[in-house]
Amino acid sequence: MRPSSQQSTQSTRESTRERTRHLVIVGNGMACHRLIEALVTSPARPAHITVIGEEPVPAYNRILLSPLLAGDTDCAALTLREAHWYAEHGITLRLGERVLAIDPGKKHVVTERARLDFDALVLATGSTPAWPTVPGIELQGVHGFRDLEDAKTLTEIARRGGQAVVIGGGLLGLEAAQGLYQRGRGALSVSVLQRGEHLMNRQLDAHAGALLKKTLEARGLNVHTGARLAGLIDDGQGAVAGVALEDGRVLEASHVVVAAGITPNDLLARRAGLACDRAVRVDHHLRTSHPAIYALGECCQFEEHTFGLVEPIWRQVEVLARVLCGEPGAGYVEAPSATRLKVSGIELYAFGPVEAAIDHEVLRYSDPESGEYRRLLLKDGRIEGAVLYGDTAQGPWYFHQAQQGADLSAARSALLFGQADVEAFLNSPTQEAA
Ligand SMILES: Cc1cc2nc3c(=O)[nH]c(=O)nc-3n(C[C@H](O)[C@H](O)[C@H](O)COP(=O)(O)OP(=O)(O)OC[C@H]3O[C@@H](n4cnc5c(N)ncnc54)[C@H](O)[C@@H]3O)c2cc1C
C-alpha cells in the first residue's frame, strides 16, 4: 500500500483545502515544533491545532542535550517556546499525555485521557534508542540518552562516580561518553564500546577514526573498537555490574548507556494499519498510506531513507507546512547531509561515502604534528565525499561544491587547501592563459 506521488498531489489538495480545520499533531519534539512555527506564519493555517506530547515540557532543542550533559550549557538554553506561546497562537498543547491509538476510519486518536477527532493528523513521534538484544539489557542501571529525563539521570550518575560503559562509538555515543566524563570530573571512569573497527565508522574513514580515538584516549576516555557485546552482568540484585564482550573480556560497569542507533517510533501507525517498513512510509508530501494522516521526522521513512539528523527534517517541515495550508508545491527530495561532532575541542566534519569506490580519486592531506587530516573523494573532478579532522573551516565550502556538482578538475592540486587556494589557483595568470 505505497502511495503514488501523482495520486498524492491531487488528493492532498482536495483533502487539505476543505478538511484541515482541526489538525492534531502527535509528539511535541523538534519536528513538531518547527512545523507549528511554520504554520502560524500562514493565514491558511489549520483553524485549530492540537499538539499532544508525552514529555512533561514543551518541545526543546534536543540537540543541546549533549552540551547540557557535559555542563557546557544550561537547561534554559534548550527552551524553544514556553507553553503560553502555544496558547497565544491558538494551539492547544496537551503535555504529559501519551497517544495510545489512532482510528484512521473514524479519524480520532485515543490518549490516556481523552478521545480527539481530527481532520488531519501528523505523526511526529521521533524515535527511541535501539536496545541491543543481549542478556541483561533489562537490568537496573542501563540507560538511553534521548530526552531531558535521560540527561538529568546521566548527570546524576556522573556526579556520583563509578564506572560507566557507553555502548556505541557513533556521534551520540561519543557525545554521551564525553559528556559523562566531563561532568564526572575524574570521579567517573568512562569506556566506549564500538562494534566497528574504528569510531564513527558511518562518517569517518579509518585514519580519521584513529585520530579521534587517540584524542579521546588522551582526554581520559577508554575506547574499545571491534568490541562486540555479549551481554550485561547482573550484580545479583537486578542491577548491572559489568559488560561482557564476545572475545571474553569483561568490563566493570556501575552504569551502562545505550547509544547504538535509534528505532523509529512507528507503533501507533503500525497498529492503525498504516503502511510501515523500517518506519512510517510517506510519499513526497509526507503523506502516509491514509489520505488524512502525515508523518515527519525520525518516525517516517521516505523511499528507503530514515532520518536521524535535523537538516532533512527541516526540509520535510517546509513541504508539510505548505501541504497543510492547502498549497502543496514541490515535494520532499532526499539530499545529502553533513555531520559534525558536538564535543568541545574536537573538530570534525564529514559528508558523502566513507569508503572510496573504484572510480573515486582520493586526495589526502595529513599533518601528524598538528593532528590535521583531510580526505576528499572525487569523481570526474567533482567532490562526492569529504572527511576533515582538526581544521574543519573549509567543510561547508566543500559541501557546497559537492551539492552544486562543481567541476573542480582544473584546481585539483589546490583542492585540499580550500576555497581561497582554489580561487587563487584558478585566477592565476598561468591558469587564465591555459
Ligand atoms: C543527545 C542528542 C543529540 C543530538 N544531536 C544532534 C545534532 O547534533 N545534529 C542533528 O542534526 N541531530 C541531532 N540529534 C537528533 C535530533 O535531535 C533528532 O533528529 C530530532 O529531535 C528529531 O525530531 P523528531 O520530532 O522527529 O523527534 P523527537 O524530537 O524525538 O520528538 C518526538 C516526540 O514525540 C513524543 N512521542 C512519541 N510517542 C508519543 C506518543 N505516543 N504520544 C505522545 N507523544 C509521543 C516523544 O516523547 C518526543 O517528545 C540529537 C539527538 C539526541 C538525542
From TrEMBL:
What's the source species' lineage?
Bacteria, Pseudomonadati, Pseudomonadota, Gammaproteobacteria, Oceanospirillales
Q: What residue spans carry the region label Disordered?
A: 1-20
Could you say which protein family the record assigns here? Answer: Belongs to the FAD-dependent oxidoreductase family.
PANTHER family attached to this UniProt entry: NITRITE REDUCTASE [NAD(P)H], PYRIDINE NUCLEOTIDE-DISULFIDE OXIDOREDUCTASE DOMAIN-CONTAINING
Provide the NADH-rubredoxin oxidoreductase C-terminal domain boundaries: 338-398
**Cofactor(s) demanded:** FAD
Instruction: Give the protein name, as stated in the record.
Output: NAD(P)/FAD-dependent oxidoreductase
**Compositional bias (Low complexity) at which positions?**
1-13
Instruction: List the SUPFAM superfamilies hit by this protein, alphabetically.
Output: FAD/NAD(P)-binding domain
Q: Which Pfam families match?
A: Pyr_redox_2, Rubredoxin_C
Q: Which UniProt keywords apply?
A: FAD, Flavoprotein
Q: Identify the residues that the record assigns to the FAD/NAD(P)-binding domain, covering every copy.
A: 22-300
